[in-house]
Each structure stands twice: as C-alpha cells, then as structure tokens.
Batch of 2 targets.
Target 1
Amino acid sequence: MKTGQTIRRFAGHEAFGVNCAKFLLGHANEESVVASCGFDRNVKFWDLRSNRQHEAMETVGQFSDAAMDLTLSGGSKTNEVTACSIDGTVRTFDIRKGELRVDTLLGQQPITAIENSSDDKLVVATLPKTLALMDKTDGEVLQTFSGFNNDQNVVLRATFTPDDRYVVLGDAIGDICVWDLLSNETSNAQPTRIPNAHAKAVSNVSFHPAASSSSSKSNNNNNNNNDDDTAAKRSKKHVMLSCASDGLAKFWS
C-alpha cells in the first residue's frame, strides 16, 4: 500500500477476466486466503503463503455461466463463501467441510451482485429489475424490492446499512433508492429515493462501519428517546459513499 507496486500476481482465470476478489479471514483475523470469481464460471481460492502463483488451492467450477460476485461470512463462519452467477443461482460453499448448497432465485434471472447482512442471516441479491432478500439458512426469498430504474441494463449493486435495517441501491439514472426492511410491505416494496444523486448510473454505494457502529452505540445509551426517534437518528448517522459513471465519488450522512 505504501509504494503501490505489484507484489504478487495470481493467474488462473485465464483471459476471461476476474469479476470479484476478496480476502478470506482465517484464525486471528489472518488474511491468508483470497477468494475470486470470474467469467470462466469458476470460484477460486488462493493461498497467499504459497509460492504457486499460477495454481489455486481450490477451484469450484459448477456455475453454468459467469460468476459475477461473492460475499464472505464473518464471525464463526469465516470459511463460508456465497457466490452468484448470470445463470440465476446462488451457491454457498463451506471450504472447510467441502459442503455446497445451491439456491435458484426468481426463475433463474441473472444475478449480478450479492451481499451479506452484518449478522450473516440474510443475503440481498441484485437482479436486473428486482432485488431479492434471501434467508441464508434455507435459501427462501423473504422479500422482493422493485421501483429502481435499470433501463440501460447496467450492473447494479445493492447493499445493507450496517444495522441491517435498510437495503440501499444506486440505479441507472443516478438515483439512490432505500428500502426499509421493517416496513409492513412484504412484496415489491417501493423505495424512498434520493433523486439525482449522480448525473449518471451509480456503480456502487457503501457504508463506513466504524462511524455507523459508534452512532448506534450512542443511540443505545440514550434511553430517553422512543424507538422511532432512535431509529431515525441511527439512520441519519450512517456515513455513505457513492460512486458513479459521472466520474464522481460522494460522501453522504
């Protein structure tokens, strides 16, 4: 990070390209393994301590189309990886036990992005016109969300706020859409919208976990507020970063 120089290269997804790569934390938070997925339909695991830079320690190639994104479980399930594909499936791998579970969402529509909730109980999957909230335990789709614009068929990415109360997505016309998971609407719920957040399609939104965590603790210590006031204050103190095709990155609170 200090010099910006390439230390090592891991080649194995051939010329198809890599769509996502993330560190898989081991014991004592040691970042010893990288998980990656790509257009070659494979999920690969790379041992950072090995000198074999052209040979993955494990390859899972059971998708029938491009593997687009993956997300890693935290807490006690550090060996669990969930990946999604254009073939419409979500596959959860336990690399320690060698177990695999396959879930098919909403009639095998392409899935371009996937994200865990912070408590590792839920997954939000991004499809071209719909978001699907899935129970990680059994693969059941609990809620669907619509109302965002993707007429340009760009790759969008939904995420959770750090308190898991809201799902947030930047859409193809530059709006940021927010769905409240505690709402009584359970199917095709329409979002609250931040209009014209960017001039072009929003590539990604993410949240600062430390800032949100401290805000949550502060709210929890204030017992004089009712539940609605506490939730409102917590949501206002989330620190969000968005980036878009207009070339801008913006901070929001």
Target 2
Amino acid sequence: MSLLNSIQRGQQSVPPRILVYGTEGIGKSTLAANAPAPIFIQTEDGLSEIACDKFPLAAGFDDVLAALNELETTEHAYQTVVIDSLDWLERLIWDAVCREYRANSIEKADGGYQRGYVHALTYWRKIVDALQRLRVSKGMAIILLAHAKVEKFDDPESATYDRYSPRLQKHAAALINEWCDAVLFATRKFRTETEDRGFGRERTIAVGLGAAGGERVLRTVGSPACVAKNRYDLPAEISLSWPELFAGLTRNNSKQGEVAHG
C-alpha cells in the first residue's frame, strides 16, 4: 500500500500536555486539582491540604511507572493525570541511574563527564512514553508540575540575562518542554513604584496587584523573563485558574479540535 493512502488530514482531537512551573505555594497543585477528574502521582509530600485523589507517595522511579501502568491497564473514570512534581521525580530518576551504575552521585555515574545526565534521559523517555499511551489509549489530559529556578541564558543576539525556567537538568528540561503542548509559568503580577525616603532619596518597590501580595497569573509566551510556550494561541498572560485556562484551551475548538474533557 502506498504511503500516500495513509496520510492524515485535518486537525486531530487529542487531550493537552501541559507543564506548569512556578515558585513554592503559588497554586500549581490547586490549579491541577480543578482539572477534569484528576488523579495525582505524587513524588513529593505536598498534597495534604488539597482535596484530590492520589497514589501513595512514590518512593522510587518504579513506583511512578507502576502508577502510570495501572492507569493504562485498569478501567477507571479519571480524565487527567498529574505528576507532582517533575523536579522530585528527577531525584528518583537520578537514584535509579546511580543504582544501575553503582555510583554514589549522578555526577559520577558511568565514569562522570555528564554521562549520568545522559543516561537519565532513558528513564525520562519511559515516563514520556507511558504518558503518551495514556493520552492516546485512555484519552487522558496530562498536567506536569514543577518548581521554578533562575538560570543564566546566553542569548546569541543580546547580552546574557537571568530568566525563570523549570527546575530540571537542561537535557531533561529540553525533552519535556519539546514534548508538551504548553509550558506555563505561574507567578505573581506586580507593578513598581518610586518611594520617597526623604532628604532627596528614593527607592523603587514592588507593589502587588490584587490581594495577598499580587495577582496570580500564568505566562504563556516565552520572554527574557521566563521560559514559556503554547500551541493554543493563548493570551500572553491569563489568570492562574483552571476555568480561565480551560476557556483558553477550548476557545479555538474549530481550529484546534477538542483538547480536554469538561
């Protein structure tokens, strides 16, 4: 049969793959808990105050894979799988690499020279493959949560600057960022004001917009300030809330197709 006969036409209806990262306590887990019928795979102990369904805290990489396999092979009503969080999952992956190569640190695995981080990608691909199967065979949306770090970025077109990015080793971050349909940075929105301190002295202070020290928002487009992207034509900034995010994901259904259950 000619390959031309197997060409796929039009847009496909598939659930989204979303990475949300930000500082501690910003509301990442709460956002995910409001997604349709979520089930959490927890790699860090931080869900005690959030009403949600969750697997027991993963003690190792195999526990995470087992949870993903259970969701794939067992009938259930969950519509969204959440990994909370990727940076703690990365520690479990590094532990697995160290056991495989009998090393006491990821830096020394397989003789060092960054080989441990390269070997870790094999484990990350197992996670991505399992998530992809859930997305295709079970129609589940994927939400990945991570903390943020500040990194120096060597921009070839300008001076080096600092920006926020997911708290992952660069090889893992590149793999996950490329696979996801949206990488969203959760932060607080501030404006700056000049304060008169007397005697001709001034200082610039950050003033929060909204309650509790700043309106919580999602940045959806990359900038010198943060790593971000999306394939849904989202506004550059939206409120940190599932209803607003869901509205953005489904706003252009005629162009994007159905992206999630609601």
